[in-house]
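Researcher: Here's my situation. A collaborator sent me these components and asked whether they could plausibly form a single complex. I don't have experimental data yet, so a predicted model of the whole assembly would be a useful starting point for our discussion.
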Amino acid sequence: MSTVNRQILLNAHPVGDLKHSDFKLVEAPMPTPGEGEVLLQTMYLALEPAMKGWMENRADYVAPLAIGDVMRGYGTARVTESNNDRFPVGSVVSGGLGWQEYLVTDGKSVPIQVLPEGVDIPASMGVLGVTGLTAYFGLMEIGKPIEGDTVLISGAAGATGSIAAQLAKIAGCRVIGMAGSAEKCDWLTGELGLDAAINYKIEDVAARVRETCKGGINIYYDNVGGEILDIALNNLADYARVVICGGISRYNLTGEIPGPKNYFNLVFRRSRMEGFIVTDFASRFGEASAILLEHLREGRLCHRETITDGFENMPNALMSLFTGDNIGKQLVRVSE
Amino acid sequence: MSTVNRQILLNAHPVGDLKHSDFKLVEAPMPTPGEGEVLLQTMYLALEPAMKGWMENRADYVAPLAIGDVMRGYGTARVTESNNDRFPVGSVVSGGLGWQEYLVTDGKSVPIQVLPEGVDIPASMGVLGVTGLTAYFGLMEIGKPIEGDTVLISGAAGATGSIAAQLAKIAGCRVIGMAGSAEKCDWLTGELGLDAAINYKIEDVAARVRETCKGGINIYYDNVGGEILDIALNNLADYARVVICGGISRYNLTGEIPGPKNYFNLVFRRSRMEGFIVTDFASRFGEASAILLEHLREGRLCHRETITDGFENMPNALMSLFTGDNIGKQLVRVSE
């Protein structure tokens, strides 16, 4: 067994694109569990675009990250030593483990939850984790789909977008997804059963949105911001709902980032643009998880994970979200 | 009695600031009422910033205006000849009369309503007209004020803003108004009883908003857009409502108009930005009018009109809205 605990720290608040020098891989001593504590060995860590905002301290809904802090992140781990009956050796837990190979907790200092036996661990970190909940509450509570609605989704082959898109199909909507490769678009209209897909990297997005959303967009579920948000605002139906879930096109820009110049169309189309933070719905996570699990079991919901091996590849895996290399949820397998 | 009917036509779709050459004053023959028709002599015409959007055909929620069309506008008129028992000679009516001194209608070709005897006609065109209804539905239905909320209002000395501000006070909110002169600010904190006023032309708006909205803005009622909207977005409380009623700072700009660069704060503050068109609430105008009339009678609601004399001054009166010369509702008195 290892005697060192590899950690990745915030080395610099990023400016513009993420760089390897924004991260620092260090070897800390292996921690030892005290009374009531357990030693966790990280299995998977999840990557999210929002992490860049955390690194920049641009996202003020979470505590600031200081230089030298272990990178913040959600993951699953195996209990390898235990002085706590609630977490027996061998059980698998999830929580905000941070970017490190090992962690000691009493279950409260870093809150963890035991995963049910036999659960699909990668799925538990995507469709059945915070990602699925984000898609669920964003679409159902902010978007409020009505049968027959036309729903446009950007980043539709991403972790959240792909689930939101399928939930909109389940709700009886016409769903058009936007993604950045032919492979992704094929996945959207194939396995996911969307009504149309737009490859924003090679197609004329404005023309294709007009063409595929003829009666106007009832719900725009936005993961990207920027020019595509403006095109969506330009094509709203009356009483449309614009769900602001992410803005990945903005995350790598510095200085003055342009806002949606067509926002005033919210008046002409008597429409609403609304943001949300999924943890505000924490009291309803149980209800939503049960619904997502049911959809999954009934085969109504596909999910996909892009899994990169090796703890040292965490920075690359995070960067890949911004170049759009991943399909579905991006994970790193830290140990088997 | 006159034998000509002066009309003001759209002469050019405006580009940038309104110019006198965008309008054309013509003398048309006096119209003659046929069977079932009445002849109306215009008394007052109302001016609204939205008219510029109509002239530009930027506002697509109304029918386009063609070059040579009589300018669109709302007004009050006296029935001077009548072949229709519903509208006896001497009665005062209101409706979309257009920019002209005389008009023939059967009450349907141009829908008109008889004003109750003894009504304050200028008030009927502001606080008790579409302006008051816009303030009411924008604040109450889109803003949804809760007692104790901090409400920030731009264009607060304008027709709609001044009523929305007072309705927010009546709802038990702390209300901060923004306006462009010391006289207007004095009116806001004096007669209107607002908690603070910000003179955006001479004060540091960002600093003053931070200072007067310490716990964050719960409702921002926006009549101006531009930089002030961005400052408001930067100072939202959680679960804030941004009511987009107008965007006068944008109306004279050409080319690419910047959008609110801080829109992503809607996510961090889990907030909502929403537009509306008052006519969507038409089925509830009666209810709202009764409430506004009650507030007025009980002395809870002040109103003010800026009245310019002379039909030929319509273009000047419209332009004055964009230089901020008016306080309250801008009207033109066309005849006594």
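Model: Some features of this prediction you could bring to your collaborator: Chain B has a mean pLDDT of 94. Residues 130-143 of chain B form the longest helix (14 residues).
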